[in-house]
Write a structure and sequence with these properties.
The complex is a heterodimer of chains A (560) and B (215). Chain A is mainly α. Helices cover 73% and strands 0% of the residues of chain A. Chain A folds into two domains: 1-42 and 341-560, MetI-like (MetI-like fold); 55-334, MetI-like fold, CATH 1.10.3720.10. Chain B contains seven helices and nine strands. Classes of the chains: A mainly alpha (560), B alpha/beta (215).
């Protein structure tokens, strides 16, 4: 009964709030919001929106980030995979990349800022010997008006994400045999991979890719830290209008949120055109039959891109760590003059409240998501058929810009006179945690040899006994990994914390992002490190708990 | 119920007018009446639906297949029952010892709920196949022959009323195959269980010594 209802519950949970949220954004955008005295429909808020200074710049930067960074990230990941095909390194790369994915967007953005800023770690490393700088160069690197550092910050998170998604889908494409076949026809390995594996792999990473586009075109926290400020990206502008003490701005914020929806949709449309173009060019390339060319470009490009992304992400963490324990640090010096734990000891007492909120909401949303995901997948196993027709619905909260529907949900809760508290935040987090937990778990769950459950039933075990005693223990590793993913997603949420909580439910992430404009580097560093620490702990536990539990079971070693 | 008592009550598995189809195409048609202690062998080329026949009898046919006919176990229509209530045991090609349970845990899992002295039964089952003291072992550390023996004992502890064998010796190497085969056949015959085996190995059919159905 529970299992029968689970798929519908999941779909309703993920689509209804999003639909309602978008719907309730439309009304105030056209002037209807009785609580604020808007009783008639009007276009004046759109006129005000389009008259607001710098709007076109805001839209362009958002659009550029939404199309260019996914394109770059996808190219780098595919070239990288083409270059390493057949090397057997896939498993290792999965292990190495997972921690990068665990770093929340905001922490990665802070790390990057501390690394590339005029007075950042990189400038210090080359100064004064190489660069000749004795004072920080007068250049706007972070928050540059073109949004370059914003795009770099997005890239260092998108590359590991797409890499993991592609690696998870890769075995379904049977890459070894395809490449071997093409090589026997005279194609060099990386080119063979691009021509024979990529066309099969791309459809499998398409939905995650659209999630990347949605995030990149509408991110709030990365823009607040790295993006342009005057004007900011569209999503940040909308949030500023929404947060204005003068509630009349809400109408324009609603119109802006709808415009954001349009910008993201337009980015996806452009992407569709690129797909069509790539298909035409790809077919020509295939038909041309050129064998040797491009091999080294592909290999070097992919390797360089991935290592650069990994290096910047890890370098950012180092920069955060150094800043968090730096005493006085004169500019061209490579290292601080003194080390101190003062910032840590002063900040930690303030951490306990937000930390408790973060952990509680992450644990609760992950637990709910895990139960629902397991219920859907277990029901699938028992029915013997896949729940595919509705699979794309899982992505609904991930491909619609957060601000476009969270806005409407806030309007709904205000209309219902619900006081913003942790329950609303928990619910908002669930919208993003559930899809990722499901995606993380479904592959392993569906791949588990069906004979285990069949065998259990021929031995007289009921479906529930076989679930608790056989299937769940066999899937302990994947379940814990999915839980770690859920916790990482929840910990990293900024907008889904800030809007439903109305700032009254501070988490590590919301506090860290709030410090972005403040500029005390060592305090920011402490919060950003804490923010990275929680997801990493989750992934570490997911890796080592199964090993500990199954230390006397050799047969469980390859299942993690 | 002890093994001796199982001997006394002879079970009977009847397949009447069974037809198995894959997406509308008839794969096989079969009638068989298997008495207690008898091993009936179904032979046929791969793709003939042999394994699917067993999956259907055991209660988990893939949705692409459809089947019709009557299957009686001790005059009871088993097709109306879920897999776990059919009392039809199945030996797969692989021993499939649950990797997360110990050898003893695997055996215990098969014991019907509410049994007394479970430990003693597990011990006796291990002694019967020369694996005394193996209860705490990790199944992954057992040899191929030992795994097969544990799988057989696990099947018996679940007290089936009929047994299906799905090419159970095909993955064993030649020297081991003969010993395991002899042990499985003699054990099932001694237990008085009607057994239906599918195989493409003529030696299996010959060693079973029962009727052979060619598809």
């Amino acid at each position: 009964m529970l299992l029968r209802a689970a798929p519908w519950l999941v779909i309703a949970l993920l689509t209804l709030p999003v639909g309602l949220g978008v719907g309730l954004t439309v009304l105030p955008a056209f002037g209807y919001l009785p609580v604020l005295g808007g009783n008639s429909f009007t276009l004046q808020h759109w006129q005000a929106l389009f008259a607001s200074p710098g709007l076109s710049d805001s839209v362009l930067v958002s659009l550029q980030a939404g199309v260019l960074t996914p394109l770059l990230a996808l190219s780098i990941v595919m070239m990288f995979l083409a270059g390493i095909s057949g090397s057997g390194l896939e498993r290792w790369i999965r292990r190495l990349v997972a921690p990068l994915l665990a770093i929340p967007h905001a922490a990665a953005a802070f790390g990057l800022a501390f690394l590339i800023a005029p007075a950042g770690l990189l400038a210090r490393l080359v100064s004064p010997q190489i660069s000749g700088w004795t004072r920080p160069p007068d250049a706007l690197i972070v928050n540059d008006p073109l949004g370059l550092s914003l795009m770099l910050g997005l890239l260092i998170k998108e590359i590991p994400f797409l890499l993991l998604m592609a690696l998870a889908a890769l075995p379904q494409c049977d890459p070894q045999r395809r490449v071997a076949m093409a090589r026997s026809l005279g194609y060099s390995p990386a080119v063979a991979w691009l021509l024979t594996v990529l066309p099969a792999l791309y459809p499998l990473v398409r939905l995650p890719l659209y999630a990347v586009i949605a995030f990149a075109s509408a991110t709030v926290e990365v823009s607040m830290i790295l993006g342009p400020t005057l004007p900011p990206t569209l999503s940040v502008a909308v949030l500023q209008w929404f947060s204005d003490p003068d509630l009349a701005w809400r109408f324009q914020a609603a119109a802006g949120a709808l415009l954001q929806l349009g910008v993201t949709a337009f980015a996806m449309l452009l992407w569709r055109c690129l797909e069509a173009l790539a298909a035409v060019l790809g077919r020509r390339w295939l038909a041309a039959g050129q064998r040797g060319r491009g091999e080294s470009v592909v290999r070097v490009g992919g390797t360089f891109g991935v290592w650069l992304a990994a290096g910047l992400a890890l370098g950012g963490l180092v920069a955060l760590l150094m800043n968090s324990i730096a005493g006085f640090w004169r500019f061209p010096d490579n290292l601080p003059g003194a080390w101190t734990l003062q910032t840590w000891s002063r900040t930690l007492p303030e951490v306990s409240g937000p930390l408790g909120n973060t952990l509680g909401i992450a644990a609760a949303s992950t637990a709910i998501a895990l139960v629902l995901a397991v219920a859907v997948l277990e029901g699938e196993q028992r029915d013997g058929r896949k729940f595919t027709p509705a699979l794309w619905l899982l992505y609904v909260p991930l491909v619609i810009p957060q601000i476009a529907f969270l806005f409407g949900l806030i309007v709904a809760t205000e209309f219902l006179r619900w006081v913003p508290d942790w329950r609303l935040v928990l619910f908002a987090h669930l919208l993003f945690v559930l899809p990722y937990v499901f995606l993380a778990l479904s592959e392993a769950y569906r791949r588990l040899d069906p004979r285990w459950a069949q065998l259990a039933s021929t031995l007289g075990a009921s479906p529930w006994r076989s679930f608790w005693r056989i299937r769940l223990p066999l899937l302990l590793g994947p379940c814990l990994t999915a839980a770690a993913v859920g916790i990482a997603v929840s910990v990293g949420q900024y907008l889904a914390t800030q809007l439903p909580g109305a700032g009254r439910v501070p988490t590590i992430t919301s506090e860290a992002v709030a410090l972005a404009s403040g500029g005390n580097r060592s305090i920011i560093a402490v919060w950003a490190l804490l923010q990275s620490l929680l997801p990493m702990l989750g992934f570490l536990l997911a890796l080592y708990v199964p090993r500990l539990v199954w230390r006397h079971r050799n047969g469980m070693r390859d299942r993690q | 119920m002890t093994d001796q008592q199982t001997n006394a009550t002879s079970h009977r598995l009847q397949l009447q007018d069974v037809r198995l189809s894959l997406r509308g195409t008839l794969l096989l048609a079969l009638d068989a009446d298997v008495c207690g202690g008898e091993i009936v062998t179904v032979m046929g080329p791969s793709g003939a639906g042999k394994s699917s026949l067993l999956a259907w009898l055991a209660g988990f046919l893939a949705p692409a297949f459809s089947a019709s006919g009557t299957v009686l176990l001790d005059r009871r229509n088993v097709l109306a029952l879920p897999a776990e209530q059919r009392r039809i045991g199945l030996l797969f090609q692989d021993p499939l010892l649950f990797p997360h349970l110990s050898v003893g845990g695997n055996l215990r899992f098969a014991l019907p709920a509410g049994k007394q002295d479970k430990d003693a039964r597990v011990q006796a089952a291990l002694v019967a196949v020369g694996l005394e003291g193996y209860a705490a072992r990790d199944p992954d550390t057992l040899s191929g022959g030992q795994k097969s023996r544990v799988a057989l004992q696990r099947l018996l502890l679940s007290e089936p009323h009929a047994v299906l064998l799905d090419e159970p010796f095909s993955r064993l190497d030649a020297s081991l195959r003969r010993d395991v085969r002899a042990l499985v056949f003699s054990t099932l015959q001694r237990a008085g269980l009607p057994t239906l085996m599918v195989t493409h190995d003529p030696e299996d059919a010959e060693a079973a010594g029962g009727r052979i159905v060619q598809l």
